[in-house]
Specification:
two-stranded parallel sheet; about 110 residues; alpha+beta; D-amino Acid Aminotransferase, Chain A, domain 2; two-stranded antiparallel ribbon; single chain
Length: about 110
């Protein structure tokens, strides 16, 4: 998730999440760009207050979350950090981002 002050927070691996290669790649690329990624537990209230949320997986790649339960995340649309992560990921795959379908870059 991305907080109001642009902190990027993900659960740490001791929080029963998979140590996926997509997750590891995204964290590394964000850090390469000078962004801080904090790996720690967070509360539901922090998630509800997040400006952006996205998930990573080998199948869905980078998926924006625009609603959490019945509450919109941020303005209800994928945010700039999520779109950056999607672009970086597709570029790493060797995809011509200009030809990637708009829905895939939410």
């Amino acid at each position: 998730m991305v907080t109001e002050d642009d902190q990027i927070i993900t659960r740490n691996l001791s929080s029963d999440i998979l140590p996926g290669i997509t997750r590891a790649h995204v964290i590394a690329r964000l850090r390469d760009r000078g962004l801080t990624v904090e790996e720690r537990a967070f509360t539901p209230d922090e998630a509800y207050a997040a400006r952006e949320i996205f998930t990573t997986s080998a199948g869905a790649m980078i998926a924006p979350v625009v609603q959490l339960e019945d509450r919109p995340v941020g303005d209800g649309k994928p945010g700039p950090v999520t779109r950056l992560v999607q672009r970086l990921y597709y570029e790493a795959l060797g995809a011509d981002v200009s030809k990637v379908a708009a829905w895939a870059l939410a």
